[in-house]
Amino acid sequence: MSQVLKQQTDLTTMQAKSRFSKSLFWLGSAQVMGRVVRLASSIILARIFTPEVFGQVAIILTCFELICTPTRRITSASLIKMNDDELAASLPNANKINWFASITAFVAMSLLSWPLAFYHQDTIIIAPMILMATSYLLLPIGMLHAAINLRANKMRVVGRAILWQTVGDGLLTATFALLGLGIWAIILPKVLVILIWIAIHRYHNPLPKSNDHSVSGLPIPKMFNFGSMVGLSDLSISLRQNIDYLLIGYFLGLEALGIYFFAFNTSLGISLGIIQSYGTALYSHLCGAKKDQQKIIASQELKARYSHSLILILKIAIPVITLQTLLSPIYLPLIYGSKWIEAGALPVFILLCLSGLVRPIGEAASQLLISLNKSRLNLSFNLGFTLLLAITIAVCSQWGLVAVALGILIIHLICMPALSFYIQLFILNKQAICTEEEQKSHSKRFNQEVHHDA
Predict the structure, then answer these.
(1) Which domain, by its residues, includes 315?
(2) Is residue 359 classed exposed, middle or buried when 0-12, 13-18 and 19+ CB atoms within 10 A define those classes?
(3) Domain assignment present for 212
(4) What pTM value is reported for the model?
(5) Into how many domains does the chain fold?
(6) For labelling alongside 25, which of 14, 120, 142, 399 has CA 20 to 30 A away?
(7) Considering Cα of 277, then 419, then 379, then 84, what sign does the dihedral take?
(8) What is the pLDDT of residues 47-88, one digit of tens each?
(9) Are 191 and 176 in contact (CB under 8 A)?
(10) Pairwise CA distance, residues 358 & 354, whole Å
């Protein structure tokens, strides 16, 4: 019996590895090609705009990301885990939740623009923030279709949407910047390209209809509660990734924030794109293991999928980031201009690059916990790390930007591997032990029943 289980586990694991590698290829290549176009756009922006303009853009995009993050998977996290009939029956409720969340996000960001403008004494950011907020109102048109593609593991379509959205953003931004539109050259394209994302996800992708009318959809409160926990977990990750912008702008001002924003995006732009694609593919990949009928096989396969995926992303990320770090003193002034070197961006750039070496570990841990329905634990971990990061930035900001970047590197090097070790020792191993005990208990009851019947 154990030999059959092992062979079945090995077969499903090999098939899953192949699917995940293809998914990561499509998403990762889309991100990289899109980032190449964005790189060309950023070269133009770096030579045209001042650090102050980059600081204004950093404030707007950070607020957008923090508000948008809880809405992205507020329904898709539930829909991906459902069977076909449950999915079809739950789509109307999911659509209502999507619209409610998007309208709330639009109102929140629009209102937030006024106190931010007052604090930074810069009313220029009000109108661009409100325009950026309108993109929330477009998202529900494609959110259900995107969830269907993710659930079906159509990562080629998901990757295509990311690619053309990023390419459109880069081309429009460069064009508008050369036309002299100022800050609008960065904000306006980000709203327009949402239409590209919607069109690709909706193309030849009708929403399924239920054939079994006896199956009821997941109630709105239950779906909203689960989606809220996932959204809060994602928000904690996003806050962890963006808290530096908020604190640097608060402690060191818009010019320092502009330098940091430039260094962060040029150093981690491509690698974070790969990591984001990895997280998107990994969640669907891990959920696939849990659909197995036999728990012990599902548990073993889940562990194998997690370990394989983590090794794969590190094999990709480490060489890219190492090469980028080594070549940065050469290509940074050559491509972006010497003014950024004079402003002190190079050491910040290098330190942030190095922090990218361990960021995939944190992403993998978060997606694993969510797939195991441990969103509360994931939220706790991320909030704790965010608090440590905020304290580190607040303390290091007393010595300038380089000290802040060094503090960010150190805290990532310590916490991300520690979280991964904890997951391996106390989550995966514990689940495997519990599953084996369940299997033994089930076998024992089965043998007793057979003996009794005999």
Answers:
(1) 2-207+217-441
(2) buried
(3) no
(4) 0.69
(5) 1
(6) 142
(7) positive
(8) 788 778 888 888 898 899 889 888 888 998 888 888 888 888
(9) no
(10) 8
Chain-centre distance for alpha carbon 128: 24
Q: What is the pLDDT of residues 222-279, one digit of tens each?
A: 899 888 888 887 887 788 778 888 888 888 887 888 888 888 878 776 667 666 666 6
Q: Indicate whether 314 belongs to any domain.
A: yes
**Residue 394: exposure state from Cβ atoms within 10 A (0-12, 13-18, ≥19):** middle
Say which residue the tokens 């995926």 belong to.
Answer: 309
Contact between 418 and 381 (Cβ < 8 Å): no
Q: What is the C-alpha to C-alpha distance for residues 108 and 325, in angstroms, rounded to an integer? A: 38
